[in-house]
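New here. Invent one.

***
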Amino acid sequence: MKNDFDFIVIGGGSAGSVLAARLSENSSFSVLLLEAGNDDTSPFIKMPAGAVTMVPTRYNNWAFETTPQTSLNNRIGYQPRGKVLGGSSAINAMIYARGHQHDYDDWKSLGWGWDSVLPYFLKSENNQNFTNSLHNSSGPLFVSNSYSNHPIADAFVEAGIACGYKHCDDFNGEDQEGMGRYQVTQYNGQRYSAARAYLEPIRYRANLHIKTKVNVAKLIIKEGKCVGVETIQGDKLYASKEVLVCAGAIKSPQLLMLSGIGDCNELEKFAIKPIHNLIGVGKNLQDHPDYVSCFSSPRTDLFGFSVPGAFNMLKQTFRYFSNGTGLCTSNFAETGGFLKTEPHLERPDIQFHFVVATVKDHARDWRTSLKHGFSNHTCVLRPKSVGTIKLASADPNQAPKIDPNFLSHPDDLTTMLKGVKIANSILQHPIMQQFKPDSINNDQNLADEQLIESIRNGTDSVYHPIGTCKMGLSTDKGAVVNSKLEVFGIEGLRVVDASIFPNLIGGNTNAPTIMVAERCADFIKTKWHKQ
């Protein structure tokens, strides 16, 4: 492989796949995409239900762990992140949610208001069901209604409506609030990851080079400019124009710090030569805290293990391969809702993901996962708790210290408590009782003090870490990149992934990450078109 390119993209996930595809549209650019994981050839990636083989395991997954969480009774949390071409979009629940429109108006001072970002959501989207001013049907990313329509998932929505909450037929429409079905990044019942959407159709391009199983050890910086990367194997690869870090909210700040960009006082502890004192690197970690209520049920058409269940899965597998429908196409979290815990709130502050399986401890509690049943996730959409990513050592093979600091702010616990109580009222409605649920958590009808203890014992990530290389103004001492995602103080270097979000949006983070990369690709092409 040659060692000099115009652009080097580090990380082939939701952002990196987009950047590599868009930049290589210009045949005069040579683009190298480096991915630490495998190519995305596994059949368990294409089959949506195959996520169960990856999320709770190390298969295509970094499977990070957090530091002990003080407000979660010192439990160690779990942070699955995709380690494969396509990144976390290859192992996630495929939910296509942009967040609330006003979330982006919070970024308006940086030039990232709703009117600025909507064109890039549209540019990426190929929606199979909605055709209106808020949707597009010609982008590379296929989005569709679910190809699995389990009656219990619809019953959860019906129960929510019966409890007085309104119906929402499009969580990406004018009004996000309500109960409804999620749209998913699928086509004909198969997962459409960022890699499949953006890279698979254009891998033939002579100016695009994709290398998997390549882990970057550090950036090469000379006289204040990033000129390339050094891999763990010791290879040096050079970029004449820019290096684009797209390794995600955990790995991107780690790579910057390993390269001498960060809080110099912290770097010197690991004998890392400081290159640029940028104290915001690794700070501002935010993630949606999530509590899961689990129920067993005698319904053997739900995920689980039994003789009748095995026969049902054989039928479902046949349906999947014959017409791309049925339970094997399920993203597990088929329905849910965005609700307000108080009526005066401007935006929903909690989100539900209703899952057609008993998912406890990220499906790592296999005894529970074998039971037929269902679960409901309750997550706090705009937590006030803020954490950090810090180095554990100067060894790039060692995971950093991940501290989301979940529920450390008392308001987050208050919101979670209200949200779980709303969820319980829906789950206890007669519409849900027809499925004869039996609570695995034993968290129904508890006094607040007891329910708070259950929340502390059960809360963890819903897989939306952001903010650790946050975008901001030059006057913001905690900012790492400017509004065009260029790293302050280092020429030729950008960070392009969810780590640049200044704050959490009210929803799943995959679609917004793709939007960020689409927009940044235009920034880059505009800059180099002029030179």
Q: What stands out?
A: The first helix runs from residue 14 to 23.
